[in-house]
Amino acid sequence: MTPLELPLDGRDWRLCVAPMIDWTDRHCRFFHRLLAPRARLYTEMITTGALAYSDPERHLDFDASEHPVALQLGGSELDALAKSARMGAQWGYDEINLNCGCPSERVLKGSFGACLMAEPALVADCYKAMRDAVDIPVTLKHRIGLDKNESYDFVRDFVGASYDAGCRVFIVHARNAILKGLSPKENREIPPLRYDVARRLKRDFPDAVFVLNGGLRTADQIVEELAPHDGVALDGVMIGREAYQRPRSLSEMSARLWPDVPLPSDEEVVDAMTAYTAARIAAGEPLRCVTRHILNLVNGQDGARRWRQMLSDNRLLNGNDAQLIREAYDTVVAAGQDRAAEKREYLRTVAEN
Asked: What residues are paired with 97 via a beta bridge?
């Protein structure tokens, strides 16, 4: 069976966690897998150069529990992309994704990322080079326009070139990329969201999978965006910074999409993260590499501030003991018990008076 003939089920991309530089490393992905058992996870963007000239294990190793997990590549040289895709497949990744959406200056200087949208034929060749190298899905993540060009024809022709080459999965960040004048952060916030463009693409390429990315924050919002609009339904959503800043949003979304799939309690997450972290420390990694990703787990709960303080305290982190995670959670539990006792005492006083 050739890659072009691989069966695709849009539900495989129903809920995705975006590739985020400096954030979605293997420790973050392990944490997110606990919170969203069926979500599709993505690595940070990894350049072909990083895989060719540095330690590939550091970039590619992952825990088996992360499946389904995709490797996102940055690059535009056909041979390098093919080699990197082959490495990803050999490492056990479920998908290879090409970054055609990152607008940072560092990416532009490397002639990949969002600037590739100006070269649809080259992107199609990149896709074919990777597709011919592996037998797992190869996908694209892209914006809907460059700079001030908001023509639908532009993004339709970009998608069409890779579609004609065989690509059948497109992750659409529904904003233009402003290549000059805006920072990466501003590029995530200032260009207006145009979800209708993603739906037009789905209408024009109905047998392809289209995943909507950009500005999605709540379970209600993703359910709304996945519902049919004028007879067109998108195949999935990709959540970015909300998943990192409010991790339990992933659980809320999972509960709406897969109501029969059980979700772990905070205590179960803490126990799993403690065991995982102990194993990573035994493998030579410092405690702080893991704890930085879980600081927001208990946001909004009594004791959340103390949790963050303990897991960010250099003096405590230098002890390199995974049990610090459990100890920090015990302070959250104690704070909740204290608050419950205060409430009971208040209600008793009111009743007596």
From this structure: 72, 139
* Nearest CA-CA partner of 35 in 332, 269, 291, 292: 269
Q: What totals of helices (H) and strands (E) does the chain contain, helices first?
A: 17, 10
End-to-end CA gap in the chain: 78
Q: Which residues pair with 129 in a beta bridge?
A: none
Distance CA 160, CA 167 (A): 9
> Which residues, in sequence order, are bridge partners of residue 73?
46, 98
Instruction: Give the model confidence (pLDDT) of 72-113 as tens digits.
Output: 999 999 999 999 999 999 999 999 999 999 886 555 555 678
Q: Could you give the CA distance from residue 84 to residue 73 in angstroms, rounded to a whole number? A: 8
Segment 283-310, tens digit of pLDDT:
999 999 999 999 999 999 999 999 999 9
In this structure, are residues 296 and 244 in contact, taking their beta carbons and an 8 Å threshold? yes
Catalytic residues: 102
Q: What is the pTM of this model?
A: 0.94
Specify whether the CB–CB gap between 80 and 48 falls below 8 A: yes
- Indicate the SS3 state at residue 239: strand
